[in-house]
């Protein structure tokens, strides 16, 4: 199995470490795959969106799975095996904290119909419900991933409340801002990780603080996808998209070119990749274009840039949406290996 080119069928051959993990808001299973690549046993996950839940089950065949609101896990009876896990993993929906939204504060404290779960709900309190569930099952470690925007500007108040919540339920917590491009992923994706260690476990490792510093060699887009054929659906030269592609430098989004050409239009999520750099952060919307040909990246190319396996079954759904909503597997693999070394091997 190569560093970036791998398949789900490779996982059974990986040596297991007897550590168990369960993932909430599991989406397409980016975290699940990362833990499996690090030798952990994934018991399964929780996901409210029925389409995402179906894709997760198709690709990961979970032992335990709940297609439900996180609050249902707090209130209802759950599988006994979840009371004896090593890591509770979670990626609470984060669009209301994203800095890509210029009106993000408008959604704080309010119900809205978000795509995450296809129901009217608040997203800014889901992190706290996740920690309530953690308090119910008391895992040794709680790992939660979110957008960089959660620790920026006015959102810092939410981050402080999250840290206090970790402490209130009996966990020593550290916060890390990590970039996937240094973690064997050909993508510049900055994410915040809240890692809480249960206080009795923290005492057993002599109150030693975690260190999360990754300096792996950067993988470029060209290195990552050069073996995957490009789409044969080239942009029509008479379209605005073609003109934007021509006038946009590799590694940049289409916004600047749009302003120069038409002085209007929002093309922030549409960008042209750079051959010698990692791809920009893959989001759930917009389009990604090749640096050398006026074509959108194929599903397999986007999947590879997210460090998803080549045999992942997207089941007809938009690969960019699933990848944009998921954690890169190799990002979690790197963290999971450090948790094994710095915590679990010491117990």
Task: Give the key terms.
347 residues, alpha/beta, seven-stranded mixed sheet, 12 helices
Describe this structure in words.
The chain starts with 19 loop residues before the first strand and ends in a 5-residue tail after the last helix. Strands 3-2-1-4-7-9-8 form a seven-stranded mixed sheet, with helices on both faces. The relative contact order is 0.16. β1, α1 and β2 form a beta-alpha-beta unit. Residues about 95-100 and about 105-110 have low confidence and may be disordered. With about 350 residues, the protein is of the alpha/beta class. It is globular. It has helices at about 30-35, 50-60, 70-75, 125-135, 155-170, 200-205, 220-225, 240-245, 255-260, 300-305, 320-325, 330-340, and strands at about 20-25, 40-45, 65, 85-90, 110-115, 120, 140-145, 170-180, 190-200, 270, 290. It is about 30% helix and about 15% strand.
Approximate strand percentage: 15-25%
* Helical proportion, percent range: 25-40%
For the sheet with most strands, the description reads: 7 strands, mixed
Ends distance: 30 Å
**What is the strand tally?**
11
What is the number of helices?
12
The quaternary state of the protein chains shown equals: single chain
Strand order of the largest sheet: 3-2-1-4-7-9-8
SSE sequence, one letter per element: EHEHEHEEEHEHEEHHHHEEHHH
C-alpha Rg (nearest Å): 20 Å
Uncertain regions spanning at least 5 consecutive residues? 96-102, 104-111
What characteristic shape results from the CA principal axes? globular
Query: What average pLDDT do the residues reach?
Result: 91
């Amino acid at each position: 199995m190569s560093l970036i080119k791998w398949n789900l069928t490779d996982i059974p051959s990986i040596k297991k470490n007897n550590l168990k993990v369960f993932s909430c808001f599991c989406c397409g299973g980016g975290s699940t795959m990362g833990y499996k690549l690090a030798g952990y046993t994934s018991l399964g996950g929780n996901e409210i969106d029925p389409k995402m839940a179906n894709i997760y089950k198709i690709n990961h065949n979970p032992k335990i799975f709940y297609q439900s609101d996180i609050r249902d896990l707090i209130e209802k009876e759950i599988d006994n095996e979840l009371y004896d896990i090593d890591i509770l993993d979670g990626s609470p929906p984060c669009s209301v904290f994203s800095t890509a939204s210029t009106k993000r504060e408008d959604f704080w404290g309010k119900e809205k119909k978000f795509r995450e779960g296809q129901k009217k709900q608040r997203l800014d309190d889901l992190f706290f419900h996740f920690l309530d569930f953690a308090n119910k099952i008391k895992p040794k470690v709680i790992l939660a991933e979110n957008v960089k925007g959660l620790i920026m500007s006015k959102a810092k108040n939410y981050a402080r409340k999250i840290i206090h919540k970790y402490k209130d339920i009996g966990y020593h917590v550290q916060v890390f801002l990590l970039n996937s491009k240094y973690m064997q992923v050909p993508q510049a994706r900055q994410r915040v990780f809240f890692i809480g260690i249960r206080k009795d476990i923290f005492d057993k490792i002599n109150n030693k603080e975690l260190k999360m510093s990754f300096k792996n060699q950067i993988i470029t887009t060209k290195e990552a996808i050069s073996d995957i054929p490009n789409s044969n659906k080239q942009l029509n030269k008479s379209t605005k998209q073609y003109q934007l592609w021509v006038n946009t430098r590799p590694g940049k989004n289409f916004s600047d070119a749009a302003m120069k050409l038409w002085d209007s239009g929002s093309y922030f999520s549409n960008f042209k990749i750079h051959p010698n750099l990692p791809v920009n952060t893959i989001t759930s919307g917009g389009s990604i274009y090749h640096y050398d040909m006026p074509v959108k990246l194929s599903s397999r190319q986007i999947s590879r840039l997210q460090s998803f396996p080549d045999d992942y079954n997207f089941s007809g759904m938009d690969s960019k949406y699933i990848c944009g909503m998921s954690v890169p597997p190799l990002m979690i693999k790197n963290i999971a290996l450090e948790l094994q070394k710095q915590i679990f091997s010491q117990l």
